[in-house]
Amino acid sequence: MGIEPRAGILDIRPYKPGAAEAPGIADPVKLSSNENALGCSPKAAAAFEASAKRLHLYPDGGATKLREAIAREEGLEAENIVCGCGSDELLQLLGRAYLDPGDKVVQSQYGFLVYRLVAMQSGAELVSAPERNYTTDVDALIEAAGDDAKIVFLANPNNPTGTYISDAEVRRLRDALPSSTLLVVDAAYAEFVRNADYSAGLELARERDDVVVTRTFSKIHGLAGARLGWAYGNKSIIDVLHRVRGPFNVNLPAIEAGTAAIADRDFMKRSADHNEEWVAWLRQQIGGLGLEVTPSVCNFVLIHFPETPGRTARDADAFLTSKGLIIRPVEPYGLPNALRATVGKAAENRRLVDGLAEFMGG
Predict the structure, then answer these.
(1) Mind listing the domains of the chain with CATH numbers?
(2) pLDDT value at position 20?
(3) DSSP secondary structure string, 305-317?
(4) In this structure, what is the dihedral angle of CA atoms 46, 260, 343, 225, given to the nearest 10 degrees?
(5) Alpha-carbon distance 108 to 122, whole Å?
(6) Helix crossing, 86-98 with 235-244: angle to 10°?
(7) CA proximity to 160, closest of 354, 350, 337
């Protein structure tokens, strides 16, 4: 008999990233992973390249330079920040630190798939609260959490729907939860949101000891390949995360690239401007083809397809892939009739719309 893992581990379905290849297509358009259409900051790329001269050295285990740069740009306290190998690692560290087998974890109906992985890795029970119009329903989350939820994960804005709830609603949620429940606000797409009623939750995390906010460098900063994220919260939470993370969990090139990226506000603005223009264009153009598109504040759109044979999401995915257009099926989220498409460069966006027009008209 072989060595057996802990009960429940083999029930976990590994996270499947967005596809990157289209069979038979030499140079496909990849719009499956919500990557920054503009790439990354040239200053970040230069810092990454310069770090090659020091690859024989261990990085600073506390990523001090990066934490101080984040604190300076975001108006935060460096000692209340911890960095990680993407925000995914930080979410998993929260599960490792705070969840016991049998604990209850709550998310919204179409919450990010990593929350399920975090719960299952710890042997916790995951409860999904129904959404309303593909948007987090705070009352449903409160009801699902009850008085015994250990963690409530809130993706705001949410992937894969692209919707968000206001700062007032986030605060209402936090006020209604027991103080024994940790609210984790996953604000991976925060920099794309320009609506006045939105907040990434940093001020709420500063005010309370039962809120932590996770952020990423993968989206607006275009550093998905560097695997870099950060979390902000009360010192009591950050101290716990420092205790359970690896001693050198952020590599040296990522630290250097992230430090340069967080300070390049011009690149961030250009990225957000590009997204604002093209996410609206995609929604208008795709909607004009007779397809429903969920309003999005992120760098992607969720496209809904009919159940008519030959016009389903699976049919569309296969057709687009055959044309070298790779977008993301979201059936694992419980959305079998939808596909998620990243905002790309101008020419890529036009190719996507042309491909969908051909599919719908064929």
Answers:
(1) 18-39+266-361 (3.90.1150.10), 42-263 (3.40.640.10)
(2) 80
(3) --SSTTSSHHHHH
(4) 70
(5) 19
(6) 100
(7) 337
Round to whole Å and give the CA distance between 163 and 80: 28
Number of residues assigned to the chain: 362
Low-confidence ranges of the chain (pLDDT < 70): 1, 362
306 CB neighbour count, 10 Å cutoff: 15
326: helix, strand or coil? strand
Q: How far apart are CA 291 and CA 283, in angstroms?
A: 9
Amino acid in position 219: K
Q: What is the per-residue pLDDT across 95-116, written as a single tens digit (0 to 9) for each?
A: 999 999 999 999 999 999 999 9
pTM here?
0.95
pLDDT value, residue 228: 98
Write out the DSSP string of 6-51: PTTGGG-----PPP---TT-SS-EE-SS---TT-S-HHHHHHHHHG
